Amino acid sequence: MHIKRIVIQGFKTYKNTTTIDDLSPAHNVVVGRNGSGKSNFFAAIRFVLSDQYTRMTKEERQGLIHEGSGTVLSAFVEIVFENSDGRFPTGKDEVVIRRTIGLKKDDYSLDYKSSTRTDVMQLLESAGFSKSNPYYIVPQGRITALTNAKDQERLNLLKEVAGAKVFENKLKESQKEMTRTKVQRDKVDEMLEFIQERLADLDSEKDELKKFQDLERDKKIYEFILYDHDLDDITTSIDEIDSEYQNAVENSHKFVENLEKREALVLQLNKSIDSAKHKQKLLSIDYDQQNSIVNDITKKLYRKTAELSEAKELFASEQKTIKTATKAIDQIRSKIQDTKNSIASKKPEVEQLKSLEKQLRLEISQAKTKQNLLYSKQGRYSMFNNKSDRNSWIESQMNQLKTDKSMKESLIATTESELSNLKQELSTVVDQIHDIQDSINGPTAQAEILEIEEKIASLRDQYSRENDQRKALWREENRCKTILDSLREDLNKAERQVGQTMDRQLANGLQAIKRITARLGLTGVYGALGELIQVNQKYRTAVEVIAGNSLFHVIVDNDDTATTLMNELIREKAGRVTFIPLNRLQVKDQVYPDSNDCVPLIKKIGFNPEIEAAVKQTFGKTIVTIDLERGYELSREFKLNAITLDGDKADRKGVLTGGYYDFRKSRMEAMKTRQEKSNEFSSQEVELLKIKSSIDKKGQEILRISNELTALHSSYDELVSSKNSFKSTLSNKLNEKFKLEESLKLLEQQITQNRALVVTLETKLDDFERELASDFEEDLSIEEKNELELLNKTLSQLDTKLNSTIDDILVRDSELTKLTLELGENLEPRLQELLKRQEQKDSVTNGGLINKLEQEVAMYHEELANAESSLIEVRTKSEGNNAELKKFHEELTAADAQQRKLIKTLENFQRNSEKYMSKRQILTKRREDIQAKIRQLGTLPDAAFNQDDEFDVDELLRKLAVVTKGLEKFSHVNRKALEQYMNFTKQRDSLVERRKELDKSEKSIMDLMDHLSERKNDAIEKTFNKVSVSFSEVFEKLVPKGVGHLIMQRHNKDTASSQYDDYENDIGHEDDESSIDNYSGVSIQVSFNSKNDEQQRIEQLSGGQKSLCAIALILAIQKSDPAPFYLFDEVDANLDTQYRTAVADMIHELSANAQFICTTFRPEMLQVANKFYGVMFNNKISSVSEITQSEAMGFIEGQQQQRQ
């Protein structure tokens, strides 16, 4: 065992918390400057372990508390002992002792639990810290004091070590007891003398008293017989009343049992009625919902039936329309064909006329050109004088004609290129027209529209189905909400019932615990004890009586959880709750009686294993017995609580409790009902959440379908709009085609005209060439004139023919245009419209609308039949439930009537019982009065009990009157004379016996005093011998060349002076004359240089030698009375170097079996120590820290240099 850790705070210079940890179990050295706090460190240890600091004043306590800057109101020192060897009888490997001091307090704690100073000191003494040997702590100055001590002081020290004070204290107590015994013996002698005188006076009064007593005896006999006779009569009457009352009680028990059964039946019927009403409410909801379903299906059926009728009528109407439309289509097709035939026949004629027109125009152009040339030639003869002038002019004209021809040919090429482009553009437009017509009237467009219409119809059906399912979920949601409202009312009712079994603060607290647990997400809160256990109905009363309010104690996993919850309760001001932290419970296994008359209550309780400790804590020490009497026996024998099934209890202290228990106010029943309702409510809430989730999903699905429908409608509208757009585009394209065709015609006409001009130019060129080659003449030739005349006629004819041809072309072209417009703008569009309408009607008919409507009508008929069947089923159940509810009401009415009858019977019994009790109370009072009178008679003679059973009351009364009259003569007699004589005689005998006991006690005390004196002498002699031997051994180790002895000195028996004779230390063989009282002191004789030289007394030694002798004496004392550890404060301060080394080696050697904590300014101690600590002082605050040996040596060397 050794000091393991020291913690100091606020003590003297140690303001802050200073921890000296992991102290060596062997040799520890503390170094530090003067004034740094080394001595305060030792004072802190003495503050805890020794009785140095006791009975301190306020000022003395203030002196131990740090006085630096900052306010320190208290200080403490804590010492932790390593106790693996078990020297401290605590059963722990560590023992923590703390002492805390303040201005008004001085407290001890043991293992962090409050303790008294006496308990701590006794614990220290049990571990070897002896009060009689305080030298395991050697502060500064004690070595010097011991060095300078006188022989008498050393003798007193030896007595203190030997424990002589203990024997002296016991001797003083024995002397005090002897004095008290003598005083008591004197008082006894005085009392004996007085009693003897009083007995002599009372002896003369005994005869007269004897006569009086005879009469008094007869009077008592007569009175007793009369009283006893009355007592027998009264007792018989009471017994008869008790018998009648017991019979009535037994009958009442049956009535009470029947009443309890009726109450249980009423309770059950009320529950059944509540359940039936709840069921009826649900059936009403089901009926309303089913009726709503029937109505919805009926409406849908009516609507679909009407749609079917309309579809059939529409179908019949459309059939007629289709026939009419077919005829119209055929007629239009015939007209279209006729028109196309007319167009086909007229087109060639128009083309032929146009070709003729071109030809005529060409011929006219050529003729006019020839004519103009001839006229020009005819006119030119007057212009020129000779051929040369003519030829020059002709050449210039030919050049101009060639230029014109080239330009016309270039224009023709350009126009032909434009014509080619227009033809290509026209071809493109025609293709676009065909495409647009296909887009409008083609099968792909119609298929897309039909596909979209089918998707829209399918999605509408799906939308209707999903909407119906959502309506069903809405109905189920309303049903769930109704059930939830009903369950909420039941749960609130159950909460009120539970709340009625406890006070309001507790109820509020339990509610707050659930709320706080959910808000903080705490996992270590299990709940109230009553909610966590399951008990059979048979044992419920027993469990409730044993548990009491513990049923509402909240079980948690540890202190932290409980603290968190309590802080929240305080913050919210939400009531009070008792917590059971499982980590705090240490429940031992209980031994139960091995008997068939009882069973452990905990075996009848179901619970989760993780709360087993809490259940054992509450119910582990209780057994259930068959009756209270047997329970009382078992509880006293096994120190257990016993309880019956009715709740009557016998606890292990012998207290019996019981009586009527109202099962209707059962706490566990209320908590069970609340838990069931809470579970049902939670389950229904989960179901409602599922339904709401399904409704949300259905809503999302319906929204998705609605979005798809919207998208499809948009697509459909886009297709229709696109078709209309295509029609508009087609019209534009047709106009474009017409314009292109007109442009083509113009270009073709330009090309024709330009080609005709080219031909004319070529003709002119040919004529100019011929004229150029001809001779120069002044007039036309006859041939040319004939030709000119012919040309004039021909032109006239050609013009007439051309005009006629143009007129024919206009007529034919007008007719062809009318036919084309009729075909393109009227007949073909009408045909397409009729075909579209016919296709739409065919799609309606071919889509199977009627079949589909017929299937839906059939489906709604089937759904209606099923819904009506379900409605009938719900109605049947509702009627059955109503019948059952009516039956329950009738049974409840009958049970109430029987209950009232039983209550009336019990009320009658109560009135009769009150009469019985009143009569019995009167008789009991009379019996008690008679018994009191009999007791007043005092001790009765045997004759009073030997009388015959048959006697005459009148005769007894007459005898009693005679005796009473005789007693009147002895009114002056001392009635207590005999009693006083007997009392004084007893007192005399008692005092004589007490005198003997006091004499015996005095002898025992004298023997004890002699024995204590003898033991005191033996203890001192043995201690001196041990210390003397140890001193010689220690001194020899410290001074190997020297020798040392302790010498016991005694008074010189031949003189009365203060001179002493020296004796050897072998005092164990002295004769009786050498008692301890003759010892005068203990001296020290040593030799430092030789074992044989004459020894010197300690007064003759130097200071260092004296200190060494003192250290040797202390170590010798410790060897004779070892302590667990030692505290030496600078014990080597005054020693020489060689002796410091010897002392250090000696301490190191002793540290193998004990712990040493030393302070020093010398290096010798550091060389052998195991651990080193340095004390620092800064700003008036000390601190201690572990240092190395080299650091400690450096510090010592620095200190020595400063001193030098």
From TrEMBL:
This is Structural maintenance of chromosomes protein. GO terms for molecular function: ATP binding; ATP hydrolysis activity. It comes from the Eukaryota. Residues 523-635 form the SMC hinge domain. Keywords: Cell cycle, Cell division, Coiled coil, Mitosis, Nucleus. CDD domains: ABC_SMC3_euk. The keyword Nucleus applies. Belongs to the SMC family. SMC3 subfamily. It comes from Cyberlindnera jadinii (strain ATCC 18201 / CBS 1600 / BCRC 20928 / JCM 3617 / NBRC 0987 / NRRL Y-1542). SMART domains: SMC_hinge. The keyword Cell division applies.
